[in-house]
Specification:
This protein is an alpha+beta fold. It has one domain. Strands 1, 2, 3, 4, 5, 6, 7 and 8 form an eight-stranded antiparallel β-sheet that branches. Strands 9-10 form a two-stranded antiparallel sheet.
């Protein structure tokens, strides 16, 4: 009679542990990628929300989008990250950073209410992409407006060399470039309108 009881050998246990480890690594990798894809979907949805608020702003503001980073063809300049709520635009005049679809602090008008909702959408998209708010600007979001047009873009979470861009001409698309650090996500067309590249 065999004096040893039947059971698993150490080799069998090690094989099972190795298989569990491999499966865990695969599942964790898939979950991480799913989170990034979900963040991209949230960015796209936030930018669609901003697009709606921008049109409401224009309707309440005499069909004008205001100026932000757009005078003298600065829409493709280097300092055009979107403003956050700490940003202080000039109320009137021809300054580079006037009241605009991206942030309007005037009182007594309905237009600023639309910019607050729109700015919240850009803030959420910026956070979804891993961006921060530094000083008065959002780190992963780029904006420009020139009274007759506007465009906004936020870096995608799954690929930081791509951004999601929306504009006043109806574009809503992926573009090349990191919106937080490069000036190629917008261009100015022959009609002088700021558009997604």
């Amino acid at each position: 009679m065999n004096k040893y009881k039947k059971g698993f050998t150490i080799l069998e246990l090690l094989v099972v542990i190795a298989i569990i480890g491999i499966l865990s690594a695969v599942v964790i990798g898939m979950v991480g990628n799913s989170r990034a894809k979900a963040a991209d979907k949230a960015i796209i949805q936030d930018m669609a929300s901003f697009k709606n608020q921008a049109e409401l702003y224009a309707a309440a503001n005499g069909s004008v989008y205001g100026n932000f980073n757009a005078l003298n063809a600065n829409a493709t300049g280097t300092n055009d990250n979107c403003p956050n709520t700490a940003f202080s635009p000039t109320a009137v005049g021809t300054g580079l950073y006037q009241q605009s679809v991206f942030w309007d602090t005037r009182t007594g008008l309905s237009a600023p209410a639309f910019t607050l909702i729109g700015n919240n959408a850009i803030e959420h998209a910026n956070l979804q992409s891993g961006g921060t708010a530094t000083g008065t600007r959002y780190g992963n979001a780029r904006c420009a407006a020139n009274n007759v047009s506007w465009a906004g873009a936020v870096t995608l979470k799954t690929n930081n060399t791509k951004s999601w861009c929306v504009d006043s001409n109806g574009a809503s698309k992926e573009v090349a470039g990191n919106a937080g650090s490069v000036n190629t996500v917008f261009t100015i067309n022959a009609g002088g309108q700021i558009v997604c590249s």
